Amino acid sequence: MDYIVPILLSLSIASCSVQNTKAIEGEMPFTQGTPTKELLHEMPRLVGMPTDGDGNSVKITVAVYDFPDKTGQRKQVGLSTAVSQGADVWVIQALMAVAQGDWFTVVERASLDNLVKERQLIRSTRELYDGAAGVDSLQPMLFAGLILEGGIVGYDTNTTSGGAGARFLGLGVNDQYRTDQVTVSLRLIGVQTGEILLTVSSTKTIASTSNGSDVFRFLDLGTRALEIESGNAANEPVNYAIRTAIEYGVLQMLYEGKDLGLWEWAEPVIADDKDINIPQDNDNSKVHNELNNTKHPISEKQGE
Question: CB under 8 Å to 82, separation ≥6 — which residues?
Fold first, then answer.
């Protein structure tokens, strides 16, 4: 009978401390969305975009070479780096997500050597079997008018930490938290002049929490000891934090670029009697024609 009360108390404390955390997202891989990517999807379309010879709108061509880790931070255990070494993929995804892909044409630069080798292989094969006509059919590569550079410039650990706990008659509970911070920086460069058009930075907090409970009692006049521990911890993924920081940095770059006059988009107008958004460039055909004939402020963005 002496064992029942401590065991019941320990089980009740353990049930309070253990959370319903889902450690594995099913048996199949999953795609994780972010709120910042949804904001990029909801960006309005550009107005006054330049057109090609056939009258089709031409998107802004931008190149992403690399997005390196400049923090030099290592994990506390082992020699692995604290942040991802392939963050350029999230920069490319963020650019291609703007207005559902209506803003930017992103050209491949991270694997430029492989791309050039493959084009040389196509050229030599066509020249061998098809002659000069086969070589001329290979389309020229696009060159970018803008380059997006930057990197992960800061990773600060244990910026804030704390917790609370209590113990009474061998029964204890505790709750702890810790936060880290990651900072990314992006800069937009004009290719023709080499001028840095704008630069932005964004910081994301990485939260970690843990809680637990324990029971330590002596039974049978102190001859036997009962010890039970239970707890769990939740850590925000570092990759998720870096991804959202990059996406927010791209979003901030779009708004600052508009303030500097690099681009313009149609501001929605809220109707008084209906809850709908009406783009300003669709108010009448006269305004629409004027916007189509306006030269885009970034004229060097597309290869000719």
Answer: 71, 73, 74, 75, 155, 157, 238
